[in-house]
Amino acid sequence: MHSKFKIFLKGIIDVSPLMIPVIPFGLIFGVLAIDVGFTPVQTIGMSLIVFGGASQIVLLQLFSGGASSLVIISSVGAVNSRHLLYGAVVSEHLSDLKLIWKIVISYFLIDQAFAISNQYFKKTKERNKYFHLVGGGATCWIIWQSTTLLGIILGSAIPEKLGLSFAVPLTFLALLVNDFRKFTNVIVIVVSGLVATFGYNFIPFKAYIIVAALTGLFTAMILTRKVNAK
Amino acid sequence: MSNWALIIYCGIITYLTRFTMIALVKKEMFSDRMREVLSFVPSAIFPAIIFPAILINDLGLFQIDNNPKIIAAIIATVIGIFTRSIIATIFSGLVSYWLLIFVI
User: Fold this and answer.
1) What domain count does chain A have?
2) Residue B58: which of B69, B43, B42, B74 has the closest Cα?
3) B80/A69 touch (CB, cutoff 8 Å), yes or no
4) How far apart are the first and last CA of chain B?
5) Distance between CA atoms of residues A58 and A206, nearest Å
6) What's the CA gap between A24 and A163, in Å, rounded?
7) What is the ipTM of this complex?
8) How far does A162 lie from chain B, in Å, by closest CA?
9) Contact assessment for residue A116 and residue A7, using Cβ atoms and an 8 Å cutoff
10) Where are the beta strands (DSSP E) in chain A?
11) CB contact under 8 A, A217 and B3
12) One-letter-per-residue 3-state SS of A18-66
């Protein structure tokens, strides 16, 4: 029991630095949701039910642009399809768990928790390692719900000029610090980034994220095959 | 469709993207080769969020000139390479961005 709690705590500590940019992100989401016409209860409901920052912002953008429900739902699915890859990566470490735990943990499989727990899983042999993901996910959950609420309350009192939206790409940039020194990773990063940028306006349903990610993975596959053949 | 129905459908599809692989993929399916390729997942996904957020402006247009986000992101990247610290990367990026838009 003790070790479960310790691992849970470690998850909280490891994910903490990543929570700093989530604060402005949640605030922006709260403000924006009210702005485009959701009620405060619906806004909180969205953060509770969807619990996925990037896709919630996409939802709002499309909603305010008058997109049909079908377009909105498929776009949210496309943006979040990256979780399929996260799930594939962590499933190796979770496959012995009972179904009920898999159901619970899936709710917490978010970018930040995935990033730090994936690193932790690779290093540890601990049987209860999955508590790390729960700790990281729960921390993010609390921050996301409370900042959504704060955004609803503060509303337009938050100056747009602070450029807080820049905090979002910055979080993801920080998650890559360990990959910048590896040559293959840098190529994958550049390929994925360019495909996403140039596909942004052309790939329908906001699917540019998954298209770019798969192109990046395919590049990694080719590059690593070459190295192995030597 | 009501707002609530929309939220719930988006919630269901999001949850399924998280649950599907965890439920379906078994340990035995992993080979060293697959592990190696999957280790590139962060490098393959995060740039797809980073690059457009920095290079494409609010109007949906590609913007390289007069774009402080690019400079701030480069500074954050350099700091990240040298410190390997998540906090230092985020702070250097935000601080240099604010310096660029408010001071310079």
Assistant:
1) 2
2) B69
3) no
4) 48
5) 8
6) 10
7) 0.90
8) 8
9) no
10) none
11) no
12) HHCCHHHHHHHHHHHHHHCCCCHHHHHHHHHHCCCHHHHHHHHHHHHCC
Do A69 and A129 fall within a single domain? yes
Q: What is the mean pLDDT of chain A?
A: 90
Looking at the complex, report in whole angstroms how far the Cα of residue B75 sits from the nearest Cα belonging to chain A. 11
| Position A159 in a domain | yes
Q: Is residue A171 part of a domain?
A: no
From chain A, the residues in CB contact with B21 under 8 A are: 83-88, 91
Does A158 have pLDDT greater than 60? Answer: yes
CB atoms B38 and A89 under 8 Å: yes
In one letter, which amino acid is A209?
I
Give yes or no for residue B93 having a pLDDT over 80: yes
- Same domain for A26 and A95, yes or no, is yes
Contacts of A93 (CB under 8 A, 6+ apart): A121, A129, A130
Distances (CA, A) of A129 to A83, A177, A188, A219, B46: 20, 23, 29, 31, 24
Q: Read off the pTM.
A: 0.84
pLDDT of residue A229: 54
Report the range of poorest mean pLDDT among A88-97, A181-190, B29-38. B29-38
Domain span including residue A201: 176-230
Chain B nearest-CA distance from A151, in A, is 18
Q: Which residue has the tokens 């985020």?
A: B90
Instruction: Tell me, yes or no, whether A197 and A151 share the same domain.
Output: no
